[in-house]
Amino acid sequence: MRRFPSPTSHRHLALSPLAVAACSLCLSLGVQAQNTPDDASTLPSVGVTAAAKRQAKASIAGLGDGPAWQQPVQAQTFSEEMLKDAQVTRLADLTKLDASVTDSYNSVGYWDYLSVRGFTLDNGYNYRREGLPVSAETRFPLENKASLEVLKGTSGLQSGVSAPGGLVNMLVKRPDGRVRSAGVSIDNTGEVRTQIDLGDRFGQQGEFGLRVNAATAKLNTHFDNSEGHSRLLAVAGDWRLSQDTLLEAEIEHSYASQPSLAGMSLLGTALPSARAYSRNLNLNNQPWSQPVEMTGTTGTVRWTQKLNSEWTSIVTYGEQHLRMNDRMAFPFGWTDYVDPADDDDDEYYYNFKDDGTFNLYDYRSENEKRLTRALKGGLTGSVTLAGLRHELRLEVLRSLYSTDLKPQAYNYSGLVSLSSPYAPQTPDPEMNDASPNRWERTTELAVQDTVHLTPEWTAWVGLRHTRLNRHSVETDGGKDTRIQQSLNTPWAALGWTFAPKTQAYVSWGEGMETKAAPSNPGLDNAGQILPALKSRQTEVGVKGQYAHADVSAQWGANVFEIRRPQAETIDNRYRLDGDARHRGLEGFWYGRIGAWGLGGSVMFIDAERRGSSQADVNGHTPVNVPEHALKLSGSYSFGAPWALTLQADVVHEGQRWVDAANTVRLPSWTRVDLGVRAVQPLSEQRSITWRLGVNNAFNTRAWREAPSMFGGHTYLFQMRERTITASAQIDF
To answer: Considering the domain boundaries, does residue 5 fall inside one?
Structure first.
């Protein structure tokens, strides 16, 4: 667990009386509805629906099914077809689709880190699968995902615990009529992916549905010795018991094995040129280097019950079991041994030495286990009070998250030079470093009301109450800490429809996140839990939708301000240290003009650290936050003889600071991706979709990002070199 978080031991999901009562209410109402069905009100029919490739809304926002322009939040939903056209194979690839989403330590062979509005999302709290919390301390397969959602901004209404910036939600493929699809892709590094997607409905009235997805891949990149492999098997089914009752279940099992890639670093205080070193350089390339292995089994069961024409209850239960072997020849700055006999006199540097030398460590954390369980009961409907229509949403969420780690190895291996990066060093796999195990249980109650004040004015108010129990103890029994807290995170918005399908809005809300000290043995409070911290966001924006003849578009612009408490290592203790204020301007436009598909998004951000006890930090910009980002996409479609689409994407990110004192700046960079898609009809139900994509078409060389991780070390990751991918998908 390279980022030194805080982990745990397994416990059963215990439900409080309040949670049991709320879920029982949903279930009992469902039974009543079955006994007295309302023929005039049924669940939506199951059939094939062609969803838009991109929508400016997301179900994770919890604002209903209304059009995107009516929702007072910024969100995006990316369909499976769009992900394939954009060559998205991992969550990190979302950075090319939305300007507000950027990299935050995305390495080959490891799990994904995303930054939204300049804040790194917490992999333990900011990710959802089917709307339920999951740990993103793994690599998620995307072959069985129907769409990916990104909610931007503080998410205290949607999630009791989450870092500010936003949420990412993954929606799995469900039974959707007859599906017969198989695909294969290959790129110029030798990476090969194959997948198959089968689905159908059964029974006299199609009341049973089944969907099966399977995939396997030989993984590779242009970096030396980065070969790996992965596999996936996913099954989803449903049973329509009646017109008003739907029972769904799904499960996926995945495995991935691939060596992880270590980043470069500053040379002393200087930024090396991205052209100075081979693009194939892999600092995790020792004779004893082993791959990172990630195994995951995740599933959900959901009961949807239409109670009457106005009310629906949904009860969902999910479990996620993760297992990981995390290994790496790990570069981590260098040490100046002032007095080799006295550790207190040693000076540690978090960059490489100016002559290109650095310390290499043998890092191993074997058999890491993570468990997430969640039970959510929800009730949605509408009532009319005092002549005003209220759309209500009530939710109870009970979740448990635990980690079970063993003592890990983080042992000095030797001094390495960039002039001879593959010189063999001495491994030391002895497991003698304690790791913090963490157990957390949360109970969340949420209520939300959408009030239609007039035809032009709409108000939203919501509140989530979270009771949090946290327990952390190290594997050697030391540093046992416990915290119990109860916090409220309110949210409110007001919208004004001042033109057809055009709304201006203002919103305000709070969010809550939890922190734990890094599991660095040198810290006085390593692995210990900090009290939960509250962030606040204000947002003002306008959104619209337009369609006439062969022109259609959705667009929006907004400004936001987020204030988030910061925790830093001060005087050898990890503690609260001022805050970070991020002010930004966002805009997007997506649409079609005849055969042209045009779209783009932009973000300008002014991020500032304030109130720190470190004088050289106050007033400066946090590291790895680009001052602006621009993502553009254009396509042109031909109708004959085949359906042919040419596409070009431009990804541009502005300068960003590499160090907290703002003395070293990473230059801006621009990347161009090209693609072509052709659909070859074979018969009425059979076709082949051919895709050819070129990532980084002009082979641009640049440092893509510069995150500060693992206690302050600066890492530099190169932009991937030109990669050509060809694929074929047959639907039969």
So the answer is: no
